[in-house]
Known about the structure:
By secondary structure, this protein is of the alpha/beta class. The protein is about 30% helix and about 25% strand.
Amino acid sequence: MKLAVLGSGSRGNATLLGSGGRWILVDAGFSGKQVEERLDTLDVPVNGVEGIVVTHEHVDHTRGIGVLARRYGIPLYMTPGTREACAHLLKGTESVVEYRPGRSFRVAGLTVAPFLTVHDAVDPVAVTVSGPECGSRVGLAMDLGRPTAQIRHSLRDCHFLVLEANHDERLLREGPYPPTVQARIASSHGHLSNHAAAQFARELLHPGLAGIILAHLSQECNRPELARRVIRDALTTAGFRGYLGVARQDQPTDLMDLTRLRSANGSDQLTLF
Ligand SMILES: [Zn+2]
Ligand SMILES: [Zn+2]
């Protein structure tokens, strides 16, 4: 299975996953044109995308869904609540497939398992995506207010994680946001801080975890080096030797080959024990 984060942050989120030349997007929070351009830099044709799984209605996750669905006939996978909350983006001509949290479904040969998160949206979900042939399981968890037992359970045993590290607590306190916005971001229905992400990543650590990409970093209240350092420190002391990257707002990550990454990490062997 291959994965690239096309971009991540409060101005847009989209993640590409695929196997055997078949692709899906989880969220399309950039304009249709931006998504096309970012796919192009990775040599992935937009008409190779067989579905867009929408995690919740916030515009940084949905900006391009209507255009991409209409222009390329890409089906949108949404919960009924998210579909309703996205009505302003849809014209009724799109192909929409409704899914329910807790029930997995297949798109482009991949199995998507959605589960509810705690976030200030109608029906917010995070997902795991599994490639049946390669056996890789990826957890995509952004816009997590707080990691509940259910979220922990759903994300266990992933071989790769894209995990929110939204803000540094001190930068949030000293940043430009008014107290009400600060409180919303830091609340249990807002976003994970670097330290909360570090703690959560430690809880999810297991020998088969080959890599983590930190995502949804706040432009104002975080720094990529800072997020990486906080999480790297927490994971290194817990024995993690895998890949740790940071997704940027303005450019895609490399298209990562998870099967290769897992074997480079030796995690395939370790999972046998
Ligand atoms: Zn959100
Ligand atoms: Zn978001």
